[in-house]
Amino acid sequence: MVLISSDNHNHIIYDDILSMTHSASMKGIQSISITEHISQFRNPRSEIKFRSVHSNGRMFDSFEEYLNEFSKLEEEHDEDQSPIRVRKGLEVDFSPVFEEQVSSFVNQKKWDILLVSVHELSNGEDVEDRKVLGDPNSSVNRWNDYINLEKRALESEFVPFDVLTHPIRLARSTPNVPDNFDDLLVDLAAVSKENGKALELNGNDIARDFTFVERIARACARSKCRISFGSDAHHPSEVGRGLEKARSLVEKYNLSVLPES
Ligand SMILES: [Zn+2]
Ligand SMILES: [Zn+2]
Q1: pTM of this prediction?
Q2: % of the chain exceeding 70 in pLDDT
Q3: Cα–ligand 1 centroid distance for 89 (angstroms)
């Protein structure tokens, strides 16, 4: 069995790339992916009405400015440490509303890894917005809508991505799930498998909604889809968050892990 040795989901809008990669090295992680939100780039942010964005944190003017961060790593290479592999990536929002605009922006460059996430429902609501808590009907509708959007994302070729991130993030706002929830997840995992994508075991979700992440792991085992681990760190202390629990799920369910390409 291949154990997880990479953290494929990290941000650099609050702390710089050196502190994030240093933290990963200290924790024995062999490969780290930096995957900034496309909504942290000034151009698509000003043109596209993203419903879920960070209200603060660093904004990048261009891909050149972003990619420049990675060159700092070469300058700073520390002789005492075995070099950690750093992959250049993005976390790309999927919505049918702005699919094309996002695609033409992201595809200007070749990336080492791309993550796709659904941050907003069809009606534009942020998936983490907790205003419908406790309403069983709207909970069922929200989960059906969310998982349908995730399936559309998996089937879409708008960007050449590897991983669907935080696939149960809606649990943050909508902890009541439909009766057939596990079947919905098995179906999602099957679509993921069919399209050659991995589902993410997300460190932030592991910390807050572990039972939901375990249900994703079980669905992946049933559908034989691959998983990817990403801490979703926004600070050095969060790099590798949830890694041990993700490893325990990989062992328990005998999951296959996205290979490091
Ligand atoms: Zn996200
Ligand atoms: Zn993220």
Answers
A1: 0.95
A2: 95
A3: 13
